[in-house]
Amino acid sequence: MEFQWYPGHMTKAKRQMQEDIKLIDLVIEVIDARCPLSSRNPDINTLGQGKLRLVLLNKADLADKRVTETWSSYFKEQGFYCVELDSRNRKNMKNVQATLDLVCAAKFEKDRKRGIKNRPVRAMVVGIPNVGKSTFINSFAGKAVAKTGNKPGVTKGKQWIKLNKSVELLDTPGILWPKFEDKTVGLHLAFIGAINDAIIETRELAYELSMFLKENYPGLMANRYNIDESIDGYEIITAIAQSRNFIKKGGELDYDKSALTLIDEFRNGSLGLISLERPNIGA
Questions:
Q1: Do 26 and 138 sit in the same domain of this protein?
Q2: Is residue 193 a part of any domain in this protein?
């Protein structure tokens, strides 16, 4: 399978970010803890050059905890500040605030020496579609200030959000990059829902996911769906349909519903805590 999805608004959003970065002190990059490298837009490193950087490993509640810890160490070794979180849980925001205080302390001291007082830190929140940028902003702000949705492309334009006297956030649209050189990257982004599902062949995606799970998390599908997972990936989709009694009118098995169930239960964590990448593989 090949995946490319780069709507016109993303080109415009990238140009706008190139302009806005001049106003920014800190770049907060939200990535998906299940596939941290695949869910990082390589353009962000160029855009954020010379800026303070904070990486948020979001959706850590859906990822393999031990793997996420190794990713956190990996990013810190690269010189980034890093926080693991579930952006839907406001308790996680204490760690983000503590890290922000640490990141910004030097900036405030620098301003003080230059005679600048009370200028808030301006932070740009960036990331690819559907990694939870707007959910993070709303949770951090303690109120609904950014549009959210369980699909890519909800945020179409930028908006400034004043959190308090110390921090202002700039929410930006999720942007991908025009071409995925590595097909595995496109596959991972399709798994997590960062690519519009309308352009994806559901059964093929479910097949690829089942093959990954068989190799990396053996027994997970067998336990979840009460099936023999030693069979081929397409047969697994059939077996899930039989086990869950997914029958269409006329008595035919509903393969599409079976495929969607596997994908959805991976995405929402019902299938288990799963990481698609490990640092020693993609780093």
A1: yes
A2: no
Element (H, E) at 55: strand 52-58
Predicted model pTM: 0.84
- The domain tally of the chain equals 2
Q: Are residues 46 and 91 in the same domain?
A: yes
* Alpha-carbon gap, residue 189 to 129, rounded angstroms: 9
Q: Please check whether residues 105 and 218 belong to one and the same domain.
A: no
Q: Per DSSP, what are the bridge partners of residue 31?
A: 57
222 Cβ partners below 8 Å, 6+ apart?
Answer: 228, 229
Residues 166 and 211 grouped into a single domain: no
With cut-offs at 50, 70 and 90, classify the pLDDT of residue 105: confident
Q: What is the Cα–Cα distance from 256 to 246, expressed in whole angstroms?
A: 9
Q: What is the mean pLDDT of the chain?
A: 84
Q: According to the model, what pLDDT value does residue 254 have?
A: 96
Residue linked to tokens 């160029």: 46
Type of residue found at 187: L
Q: What average pLDDT does this structure show over 105-120?
A: 78
Mean pLDDT of 210-238: 95
What is the C-alpha to C-alpha distance for residues 193 and 190, in angstroms, rounded to an integer?
5
> Are 33 and 164 in a shared domain?
yes
Residue located via tokens 């097949």: 207
| Full residue range of the structural domain in which residue 45 is found | 8-171
Buried-state track 55-72, b at ≥16 Cβ within 10 A, e below 16: bbbbbbbbbbeebbeebb
C-beta separation of 156 from 147 below 8 A = no
